[in-house]
Amino acid sequence: MTNIRPVRSLYPRRLFLITFLMAIIAVPLVLAVRPIAAQQRSSNNCTATPDNGLTEFSSTNADAVQDAIDAAANGAVVKVAGTCVGVQPFVLSNATINPTAYISKPLTLQGGYAFPNWDDDPDGVANPTVLDGDNLGRVIVIHSNDDTEQFEVNVRHLTIQHGNGKADGELPEFIERGGGVYIQQNKTVTIAHSSVISSSAGVGAGISTLGNTAVLASAIANNTAVPSGGGIVTLDAATLTIRDSAIVGNRATRSGGIRNLSSNPMLIENSTFSGNSAGERGSALFSGVSATLINVTVSDNVGY
């Protein structure tokens, strides 16, 4: 296995508060997002299939999800039903991480099903599907041993909750990043119709990305980072697009909602920043480069 390469500094030498070039509308948006309260874990029946039910994996923890991911062909849709709680160790060169789901190939990870009805259209409201890290590790890690490898991952109709990016300590590359979702460079990830909630990390409690990330019709909520980026952090040359989404109730020492430390600008459209808080550098949003905001509501954020 190849060694994990050391990462560059998290912070550029100079950071500038974003200048809002687009108008900020004052009327709250009505967003098609999943509920943002953490899902209850009264029954942990977890089922997953990599091939529309020909092969099925079941567990009382989250093992079924990883089993289905491991069995999936490149480009497959891994369908998940139920509540999947817990983590498992993955040895990566000189580091061991403990995610709920480790994805190292192109695929779609999709919830919203009621077992065994895999042919139904996914509905994350009628059939909540929960991936829960139980505060023992990250929930979803999208990564390969070769950080130059490129592939695409779609995450749909899932509640991603109770991740902990600090659980594994100060590991090479990961460095307490990403409680809910960690995305390595050169990976392209779309998170749609999902919630990333109630997670913690040092940097990017909800999502920490070095890759190309789109958040669509989703909620990033109630995540806590110490020190940086309660909702989302972008790093290095990451790209970030957010549409029809809510960034709400996130907290951090610096930058409660989003902290863009990438060299690339962001695009945020038809979205809401509300109830985020930070001690400095943007309670809702901070960026070291320009950003385009279209029809964005910013309200009731606390801090500087």
Task: Give the tags.
twelve-stranded parallel beta barrel; seven-stranded parallel sheet; 304 residues; globular; 3% helix; mainly beta; disordered N terminus
Topology:
Blueprint: E1 46-49, E2 57-59, H1 63-71, E3 77-85, E4 90-92, E5 95-97, E6 101-103, E7 107-113, E8 130-132, E9 140-142, E10 151-156, E11 159-161, E12 181-183, E13 187-192, E14 195-197, E15 200-203, E16 207-209, E17 212-216, E18 219-221, E19 224-228, E20 232-234, E21 239-243, E22 246-248, E23 251-254, E24 258-260, E25 266-274, E26 277-280, E27 285-287, E28 291-299, E29 302-303
Parallel strand pairs: 3-7, 3-8, 6-9, 7-10, 8-11, 9-12, 10-13, 11-14, 12-16, 13-17, 14-18, 15-19, 16-20, 17-21, 18-22, 19-23, 20-24, 21-25, 22-25, 23-26, 24-27, 25-28, 26-29
Antiparallel strand pairs: 1-2, 1-3, 4-5
Write up this protein.
The chain is mainly β and 304 residues long. It has one domain (46-303). Helices cover 3% and strands 41% of the residues. The chain has one helix and 29 strands. The strands form four sheets. A twelve-stranded parallel barrel has the order 3-7-10-13-17-21-25-22-18-14-11-8. Strands 6-9-12-16-20-24-27 form a seven-stranded parallel sheet. Residues 1-35 have low confidence and may be disordered.
The fraction of residues assigned to DSSP E strands is 35-45%
State the end-to-end CA separation.
44 Å
Give me the number of helical elements.
1
Largest sheet: 12 strands, parallel, barrel
Helix amount, in percent? under 10%
Placed side by side, the strands forming the largest sheet appear as 3-7-10-13-17-21-25-22-18-14-11-8
Number of separate strands: 29
Shape, principal axes of CA atoms: globular
Rg, Å, rounded:
18 Å
Secondary structural class: mainly beta
Poorly predicted tracts of residues: 1-35
Estimate nothing, just give the exact number of structural domains. 1
The chain-level mean pLDDT equals 87
Order of helices and strands: EEHEEEEEEEEEEEEEEEEEEEEEEEEEEE
